[in-house]
Amino acid sequence: MAEGKKLVIVESPTKMRSIQGYLGDGYEVLSSVGHIRDLADKKDIPADDKKAYGKYSIDVENGFDPYYVVSDRKTKTVAELRRALKSADEVLLATDEDREGEAIAWHLLETLKPKVPVKRMVFHEITKDAIQAAVGNTRELDLALVDAQETRRILDRLYGWDVSPVLWYKVKSGLSAGRVQSAATRMVVERERERMAFVSAEYWDVESQASASAGSATQGAAFGVRLVRVDGGQLARGTDFNDAGQLKKAVVVLSEADAEALAAAVDATGTASVTKVEAKPGTRSPYAPFTTSTLQQEAGRKLSMSAKQAMSVAQRLYEKGYITYMRTDSVALSTQAVQAARSQAVALYGDAAVPLKPRVYKSKSKNAQEAHEAIRPSGETFRTPASVSSGLDREEQRLYDLIWKRTVASQMSDAKYETTTITLETEAAGKRVEFTASGTVYTFKGFLEAYEEGRDEKRNAQDSSADQSLPAVAVGDELAIGESVAKGHRTTPKPRYTEASLVKALEEHGIGRPSTFASIIGTVIDRGYATKRGQALVPTWLAFSVVRLLEQHFADLIDYDFTAALEDDLDAIARGEQNRVEWLKSFYYGSENQVGLRQVVDNLGEIDARALNSTRITDDATLRFGKYGPYLEVVDPANPEAKPRIVNVPEDLAPDELTADKARELIDAPVAGDRVLGENPENGKIVVVKDGRFGPYVQENDPVSEDDSVDEATGEVLQQAQEPSAKGKKKTKKEAAPKPRTASLLRSMSVDTIDLDTALQLLSLPRVVGTDPATGEEITAQNGRFGPYLKKGTDSRSLESESQIFDVTLEQALELYAQPKYGGRKASSALKEFEADPVSGKPIRIRDGRFGAYVTDGETNVTIPRGQTPDDVTFEIAVQMLADKRAKGPAPKRGAKKPAAKKAPAKKAPAKKTAAKKAPAKKAPASDADKAAARSEAAKKAAATRKANAIAKADAGRAAAKAGS
Length: 965
Fold this sequence. Notes:
The chain has a 6-stranded antiparallel barrel with strand order 9-10-14-13-12-15. Strands 2-1-7-8 form a 4-stranded parallel β-sheet. It is globular and about 95 Å long. It is built from 27 helices and 35 strands. Helix 9 packs antiparallel against helix 14, helix 10 packs across helix 15 and helix 14 crosses helix 15 (about 515-525). By secondary structure, the chain is α+β, with helices and mostly antiparallel strands.
């Protein structure tokens, strides 16, 4: 019998092709495309097991045993792996070397159940030498790592599925809570609370220009000096004030008038003497090579990449063989990598660029999942960014350049500098005033020749002195001083978190793991808990409501120390120092040291949803968060029992910007809606423009009655208050008035500028373009949810612009309908192109379509989910998206009648259903008994349908909660 091949299973198709080339014909390399199985959905659990596993897909009463199933989209992958396994004589599980990769390898082993020897193959870079070395140095599966990952998955399921439903019922449906996600959201909200409570303080100083007198030996260019002391007292700086705007120590605080008077007096004096010249040498050491966390931070600061985008690009670089594994907490470099970095530094910057001994970096993390090396260029010699540019796209080039520079710089010499501070003194307005100027000169740039780390925004940055070139002066020298200017400053609150600074804060608190930060921040944004303003993360009022609920009722679960302790415990399980089952029991049921999750959920008590979603802004205005977003509820102080007035809050207004003054401005602002545009000459109705919750629109109203008036300033229709009915007099019910005609404004239109003619055009829609001579059907032009379009019966065609709604001709419309609906029209240019799909064999492209960007191989289309951009989609993600779509099958046609999946429970009484259908064949009138039976049968069907819908709704809710961490 011929000897079989060795089956190597990796996670990604890109790695599959690279590794196959390195190993040769004796190996067959296949991809699992990520996880092949996960915790089951409720509907996938057999009836016999539902009692034990039904709620979480975990038997919490018997060792927290999980119920796993192979997902529908992976059945084809598993079948392909089983086919290859039949002819293999050995299996090498070559998934990633972290905790997640170890778990994937275990799931493959449990699912495939191979009867041939199985080895675990690990590597941290995809080069020929590394792959061949990994084949020769296999090991056994690390079950402690598997336990740790399984515990994490179970923990997240318990947390998400118990806490998320509370958010659905008390805040808003579709929300989720998660172990790390909720702590991160709390951080963003707490920073905004600090900004809201912050009181800015004003302080002044004086800036002047100093220079050596003409003819002096030290004559040179002028340099800037800043006032620092008055009569020996230190002048106030931003750091001298606390967040309440109060001084923390005794300093001199100048008013605007004081500063201007001093500036004039200094210019009048005209000279100052040098009282002190201080030169201090210093050194700066290079930064350690990148870890996952520091790479995300620097990519955010220097390249403006989101954490998710940075990891996506890094994944591509790793799988193409350009960098080492990108999920690591280690800062160590291998001996070969150290030598490669030093050699390249010497070649580029000279012998002095590196110290005598190689630099050694040690990780502070004791995390068992970390790979053994930092992120660096792959190979024993590093390829320069210029040499690899032809094989990389723009984002890959930028990130590779960053990694290469950081790695080379990490082995270079310290930078050396000297900081000189000059102090000047003079008399002004009877006061002794002192100015200082500072300048830094690098005497040896060292590692700064290759790399300098970016910086996060800092508060009170206005107090920092800019580096400048200073002349050589000596104590006692007289310098000219003038051009003095009084400068006002205000203290600033802490800056909002950016993705980079949030990643840094999470790591400092020990919350989560760097490999999960990108997905966690993505979830926070996707759930609507934060929006991005530039690079800053601005929390929404929805996040305030969610955090308030969690703080009041799940305080331990979002406590930073508690969350960090969970991570430490999970690491202890990974190291084999803690028992998984005992730990889960303590977390879920409670112990002497903590209240269990189950006890917290079972004893929540009453939760006041209205109070949770309310924030007092002023005495008469409260910010509330409702179904459609935030709004102000304004109470009339003169009539507190009257219905409060509702004032919309602009979506782009950050919570810290909704001050009492801003609230009053919104309340007192002229009403943009209900502006009268004029009279419709066809029917005499008044046309007004309104700004509604779902956007601006125009509406026809009945003519203004004699009791109504129009505000001349705003154009708002003011209705006279109705006379109260006489006491005891019975009110007659009015007939329902016909709804007025309305039409939404197009995207190019504005409430402030729309005129009567345009409004009448909108109200006339849909516009009849003409009749198709071939079919006799009427063609209309109109505006819809997804933009302007033509409609002929049930057939529609998109228009290119909104203006075409009003000017497209019948000939143009017929020309559009003559083209095939999809294939024959002008194709969008591909936003991104990949290699051929492993299933269809056709190239994968990302295109921009009517409903947004989508992935296609020419046969299957799948829209890129909200919150993701085309830049986030790698080849592997694209392959997975297409595979998922194929597994679901074609979407049902609209209007097609087929049994809904939700109504499955109604199958319990098929015989009765058949009997009911035969009843109409009986010509005789139905008896009372027959009618009663029919009513009973109908009631049973309705009850079954309600039950099925309730089950489906719960399943959908749990599906949303799965993304909770």
